[in-house]
Amino acid sequence: MSTLLPPDLAQSAALALLAFSFAGSFLTAAFGIGGGVAFLGACAILLPPAAIIPVHGVVQLGSNTTRALLFFRNVMWTALPAFVIGSLVGVAIGGSVVVSLPAWLVQSAVGVFILWVVFVHPPRWLSQWPLVTGLISSFLTMFFGATGPFVAGYVKSLKLDRHTHTGTQAVLMTVQHGLKVAMFGVLGFAYGEWAAVIGALIVAGALGTWVGKIVLGRMTDHGFHRVLNVILVLVALRLIWGGISALF
C-alpha cells in the first residue's frame, strides 16, 4: 500500500482518512450535513497543507456525486441553474484572489450565519436567490474548503422533506466541488500523485453514503430536521471557536 501513497503521507494517516471519509459521508447522507466539515478537520491534521483543500474537494465531489445519484428522484432541480451561475462567478473570483481571506474571519462569519439560520427566521433572500448563495459559498470554498453548512442554510430555507433536502444539497455541492477541483487543476495542483489515495477515499465515502441512506429511510421528517438543527449548531459553534482561537 505504501508504494501507492505520496511520499509525505504515512500509511497510518491514509487509513485514518479512509475511516473519516466513510464516517463523514454517512453523517451527511443520514442527517443532511456535517460530514464535509468533519472530513476537512481530518484532512487538516493528516495531510500536508498544500493538499488539504484540493484533496478534500475531490473526495467531496465523489461523495456528493454518489449521494446525488442515490437521491436523484428527490432533487428539486429549480434551484440548480441560478446556483451554477453564481458558483461559476464565485469560483472565478476566489481563484483570482492572490491574498486569501483571514481564516478566523471566514470561520467565524460562517458560524454566526449558521446560528442565524437555525435560531432566527432564515433570511428571505436565501430561498429566493440561489445565485447569491452559489456565488458566496463558491468564493468561500476556495479558501475554507467545506461550505456545506452555508449551502445547507439555503436548502433549509426551502423547507423540503428529508429526502428532497438531502438530494438537493448533494446536487448543489457536486456542482460547487466540481468547479473548485477544476480551478485548483488550472492553478497547478498535481492530482496525479494523489490518485490512488483519492480513489480509495471516494470508495469509502460511497459506502458511507449507502449506509447513511438506509438510516435516513428509517427516520421521520420531524426527526431529521431536529437532528439537522443540532448538527448545524454544533458545527457553527466549532467554527466560531476555531475562528476565535485562530485570532488570538
Describe this structure in words.
By secondary structure, this protein is an all-alpha fold. The chain contains 11 helices and no strands. It has helices spanning 11-31, 35-46, 52-70, 80-96, 103-119, 124-128, 130-144, 148-157, 162-186, 195-217, 221-247. Helix 5 (103-119) packs parallel to helix 8 (148-157), helix 7 (130-144) crosses helix 9 and helix 8 (148-157) runs antiparallel to helix 9. The longest helix has 27 residues, at 221-247. The protein is globular, with a radius of gyration of 17 Å. The N and C termini lie far apart (41 Å). The mean pLDDT is 83.
State the end-to-end CA separation: 41 Å
Query: How much helical structure, as a percent, in the residues?
Result: over 70%
> Which parts are unreliable, with pLDDT below 50 for 5 consecutive residues or more?
none
Which structural category do the helix and sheet elements fall into? mainly alpha
Mean pLDDT: 83
Give the ordered list of helices and strands. HHHHHHHHHHH
Number of helical elements: 11
Number of strands: 0
Shape: globular
List keywords for this structure.
mainly alpha
Give a quick summary of the entry.
The chain is mainly alpha-helical and 248 residues long. The protein contains eleven helices and no strands. The longest helix has 27 residues.
